[in-house]
Amino acid sequence: MNHLKSTITSIFLLIVSINSFAQNKTMGSSDPEAKKILDAVSAKFKTYKGVQAGFSFTSEDAKGKVQGTKKGTLFMKSTKYRVTLVNAQDIFCDGSNIWTYDKGANEVTISKFDPGQNTITPQKLFTSFYDKDFLYKLNGEKKMGGKTVQEIELTPYDKSKPFFKVYVWVDKIAKTIYSVKVMEKTGNRYTYTVSSLNGNATVADAQFVFDKKNYPGVEVIDLR
Questions:
Q1: Smallest Cα–Cα separation from 105: which of 206, 5, 11?
Q2: Residues 12-24: tens digit of each pLDDT
Q3: Contact 26, 135 (CB under 8 A)
Q4: Which fold does the domain 2-222 belong to in CATH?
């Protein structure tokens, strides 16, 4: 479950923080056409006041066999976020604390949010999944889910990372991320696909705080 949590939360912030490495990465030998697309995604994302996104998350083994698919919802506003996985877990962050609630165990783990790790993602508290040091290139266009998407291939400069490739598919018309696929060195593959996206969602601050009163009998593990 911890590995699933780390992978999912990392993919989310790869998507919502694409603007960070699109704008902060020096060009180097990266593809200028890919940069234009990432910059457009960044500009679009900056217009969002509050985000509510539906998603699916699929894991595959080294042979390409699907190990499972989960659905859920992402809420985000400023540095606050909430990830809800159907029949699995909820992850809350209010900008100061992170609560990870395991629905099956009725258990919540509380951690401090570390702003020093926020250059790319607040979820680096869970994993060092990625940083901004990618080489990226545009592979072309294709059809996915009835949309025309532009495929960008990202390769980390740091070869010690647990993954060796990330593929990002951008909706050509909407200028938003449609899907992301992470290729791990172990052979495992993880794909996040957006099913719906509202960048003008009204999201109450209470959405980002775990309220113990709503979870009778919950076991609290406070790591702060």
A1: 5
A2: 555 544 444 444 4
A3: no
A4: outer membrane lipoprotein receptor (LolB), chain A (2.50.20)
* Helix (H/G/I), strand (E/B), else coil: 102: strand
| Residue matched to tokens 């060796």 | 164
What are the φ/ψ torsions at residue 79 (nearest 5 degrees)?
-90, 0
Within 8 A by CB and 6+ apart from 19, the residues are 38, 41, 42, 43, 45, 46
How would DSSP label each residue in 30-51? S-HHHHHHHHHHHHHHTT-SBE
pLDDT digits (tens, 9 = 90+) for 118-150: 333 333 322 333 336 678 899 999 999 899 999
| Burial of residue 124 (number of CB atoms within 10 Å: 0-12, 13-18, 19+) | buried
Name the pTM for this structure: 0.76
